[in-house]
Amino acid sequence: MLIFPYYSLEDREKVLTHSIRPDKPEDPKNKYYKPRGTKNHFYVPKTLSTEDLQNYHIPIFITEGEKKALCGASHGYAVVSIGGVHSWKTKDENDKSIPLPEFSKINFQNRKTYIVFDSDWLENLNIFQSVMELSRFLKTLGAEVLCVCIRGE
Q1: Best label site of 25, 64, 96, 121, fewest CB within 10 Å?
Q2: Which of 84, 97, 99 has the alpha carbon at shortest distance from 140?
Q3: Contact, 58 vs 78, CB < 8 A?
Q4: What are phi and psi of 121, to 5 degrees?
Q5: Residue 48 burial (CB count, 10 A)
Q6: DSSP class of 30
Q7: Is the pTM of this model over 0.85?
Q8: pLDDT higher than threshold 90 for residue 80
Q9: pLDDT at position 9, please?
């Protein structure tokens, strides 16, 4: 079993929630579990500091899944991840869909920002639309957005 703690972007020692990946998930389509009622958050590897999040000279990568974020971080990249293509949003107190509040904790102004989702985003209209919506939102924050598709064999 793998456990991924989700740390606060302000207090890198404070755990907001966690995600669990059982060795043998019951549902092959849902391999990760979070506590019921948990809101969406960025998963940010512990090696990424608050200073890194503010430094627009460091390109930032947004991907799906904790393991991809940890892999990128282990190679020296600033990677944050979300749980799925629509998980860059959460619900407010009126149950309205809004961007994650954590976006305000990262400096996107004039920053190269790569959206690196699973390769199916080019073939699946629903996922493609979410990538484009995220891209448009990031541009409102001043990001220089690049959408990347990495194809497997």
Answers
A1: 96
A2: 99
A3: yes
A4: -65, -25
A5: 23
A6: B
A7: yes
A8: yes
A9: 84
